[in-house]
Each structure stands twice: as structure tokens, then as C-alpha cells.
Specification:
This protein is of the alpha+beta class and 196 residues long. The protein is built from nine helices and four strands. Helices cover 41% and strands 15% of the residues.
């Protein structure tokens, strides 16, 4: 096999990993979340812009505000997950570029002075980081349940501000009973990859 990553790690991150639909009541600690971030922050983004922002929904009061904004079928699992993360794109990420891209601090104004350009870049790169985040949750031995079934405008109004665009909500924790649906099929290599 041509992969150098240990097969058990390959299984943990991809082959055996699934979207969890139920969770145990075992808590997800701040230390686990910090370890996830400390791993996934190294994933590449354009200009190292790193626009992903994570809002952790821990308190019962915050959960009560979030659950009604979820699609009906997502409410039970969001109610019961030990931790819920709202992943959003920071449309003002360019303010951090002098620190994050120090060899060309002018990138802030040269490329990202206009809001529509920033929004497009933030959405693309934060979505990329969201993928890293999901793999990081799996690397921590936890299950992730990413969802886009929610009222985006209401979540933004309730939890974010006009400078942050919600991308997805991720339930996080140890899987509970009957956590998995049967695995759906995947496309074959030659259905996806074309050589020109």
C-alpha cells in the first residue's frame, strides 16, 4: 500500500468514521477541544487566512436557544450531544493577515479590501478548515455529526454577528446506542479522477 499513515489511523479518520446520530453522556472537555484545535490549525488555507471561527454551545441556556433553530430531524441529536460547535466564516479575517502572513502584510489591503472578495475567500477557506475540524474531532477519538439543516439567518442573529457567516453545526461526543446509519455508497476512483 502506498499510504504511510498507520492503517488503524486511516480507519479512525476515514474508513470507520461515520456521522454520529446519537451520543453518550460522556462530556467533551476543554482540553479535548484545545487538542483538536492545536492539531487542525496547521491545515493550509490561502494566504494562511484561517477564517474559521468556532462557537462552542455548552450551557443549557444556549442549547435551548439553538435547538429550535435546527431542522426537525436534527433537534434530538443536537439536544443530546455533549458538545455542539457552530462553525462560521469570519468575513473580517483580513485584519489578522499582518500577523498570519507576515512576509507580505500588505495582502490585507492588496487583495482583501473589498467585502465581497473577503466573503468569498472566507467561505471557501473556512469550509476547508471545517473539514480539518471534523477530522480533528475523529483524531481525538470522538464522533462528529456535521449538519447544515438549520436556519442560517436565525443562527447568525442568535449566536454570531454580521461579520460571521454560519457554515455548519457539528455535534461532538462519544457515540451512543444505534449511532450509525448504514454506510452510504461512495463513487469509484475512475468516476471521480480524470487524467488529462
Amino acid at each position: 500500500m502506498s499510504l504511510v499513515l498507520d492503517p488503524a489511523a486511516q480507519d479512525l479518520l476515514f474508513r470507520e468514521a461515520r456521522t454520529a446520530n446519537t451520543f453518550s453522556d460522556e462530556p467533551v472537555t476543554e482540553e479535548q477541544v484545545q487538542a483538536i484545535y492545536d492539531l487542525v490549525k496547521y491545515g493550509p488555507t490561502a494566504f494562511n487566512q484561517s477564517p474559521l471561527r468556532v462557537t462552542l454551545v455548552r450551557s443549557p441556556e444556549a442549547r435551548e436557544r439553538l435547538v429550535p433553530l435546527m431542522a426537525e430531524g436534527n433537534r434530538p441529536k443536537t439536544s443530546s450531544a455533549p458538545l455542539v460547535a457552530i462553525l462560521s466564516a469570519d468575513n473580517e479575517f483580513h485584519e489578522e493577515l499582518p500577523q498570519l502572513f507576515p512576509h507580505f502584510p500588505q495582502a490585507k489591503d492588496a487583495f482583501f479590501s473589498e467585502r465581497p472578495v473577503r466573503e468569498q475567500a472566507a467561505t471557501l477557506n473556512a469550509a476547508l478548515q471545517a473539514g480539518y475540524f471534523i477530522v480533528g474531532v475523529r483524531a481525538a477519538g470522538l464522533a462528529a455529526g456535521p449538519m447544515t439543516g438549520f436556519d442560517f439567518a436565525a443562527v447568525q442573529k442568535e449566536f454570531l454577528d454580521d461579520d460571521h457567516t454560519p457554515l455548519m453545526i457539528v455535534n461532538i461526543g462519544k457515540p451512543g446506542e444505534d449511532a450509525w446509519f448504514p454506510r452510504s455508497p461512495r463513487l469509484a476512483f475512475d468516476e471521480v479522477v480524470t487524467t488529462v
